[in-house]
Write a structure and sequence with these properties.
This protein is an alpha/beta fold. The protein contains 5 helices and 11 strands; from the N terminus they run E-E-E-E-H-E-E-E-H-E-E-H-E-H-E-H. Helix 2 (135-148) crosses helix 5 (221-244). It binds hypoxanthine.
Length: 246
């Protein structure tokens, strides 16, 4: 049976319901992952879990060692990756609490270590990234969302910004003109690195705030934290159902 990795984002630094069988301190050629990898059983399936921002939450999006996280997960036996990401909503439909399984992304980040293919190489490799998310894995998340009857979108374009600051309203207008529906800071280079390692990868995004300029007020951490707290049970339910269908 496929061993799935779950990469937990903001609000999911630990996976309640995971029966832990081992905490793995892994070293990689790229350094240490964000936290020990937890091996265990979730929804009756073997999973590996890593908290993207560390546990406790302490690593900002631009300083996450994405390469070490992906490398360590693969090294420990992960065969597919389900990523959980908190995002801001750009599209009208993407209000706080909405769940989205993006089908595309645009990368606006800069200065991040974004490839395993560098240094002294035998040959240069350009991986195909036309469709950044794995369709069968996406479909499993979608089926789980339908079964749970949670408000969700089955497609969406994820804009990955550099952070850690939130965007200006004009930046969000630009992202909307580019066709983006949701905005987060951690979707890249994670998705591309998974592709380089030939790990099928899909994202379950929880909208935790209207993006900048998309509501009458400012964006507060308190509002984000409230939406995260409210959405976490839904995320766990969707992950559990998606895994048990694997
Ligand atoms: N912008 C970027 N990243 C985010 C946001 C946002 O509004 N909300 C949560 N992560």
């Amino acid at each position: 049976m496929t061993v799935h990795a779950i990469i937990g984002g903001t609000g999911l630094t630990q996976l309640e319901g995971l029966t832990i069988t081992a905490a793995l301190n892994v070293d990689t050629p790229y350094g240490a992952p964000s936290a020990p990898l937890l091996r265990g059983d979730f929804a009756g399936r073997e999973v590996l879990f890593v908290a993207r921002h560390g546990h406790p939450h302490r690593i900002p999006p631009h300083q996450v060692n994405y390469r070490a996280n992906l490398w360590a997960l693969k090294q420990c036996g992960a065969q597919a990756v389900l990523a959980v990401n908190a995002v801001g909503g750009i599209h009208r439909q993407m209000g706080a609490g909405h769940l989205c399984v993006p089908h595309q992304l645009i990368d606006y980040t800069f200065g991040r270590e974004q490839t395993f293919f560098e240094g002294i190489l035998d040959h240069v490799t350009h991986v195909d990234f036309s469709y950044p998310y794995d369709e069968p894995l996406r479909q499993r998340l979608i089926d789980a969302l339908r079964a749970e009857q949670f408000a969700h979108s089955e497609r969406g374009v994820y804009a990955c910004t550099q952070g850690p600051r939130l965007e200006t309203a004009a930046e969000i207008d630009r992202l909307e003109r580019d066709g983006c529906d949701i905005v987060g800071m951690t979707g890249m280079p994670e998705a591309a690195l998974a592709r380089e390692l030939e790990l099928p990868y899909a994202c379950l995004a929880l909208v935790v705030n209207p993006a900048a300029g998309r509501s009458s007020g400012l964006i507060s951490m308190a509002d984000i934290e409230r939406a995260l707290g409210d959405g976490i049970d839904q995320i766990k339910a969707v992950l559990g159902r998606a895994l048990s269908a694997a």
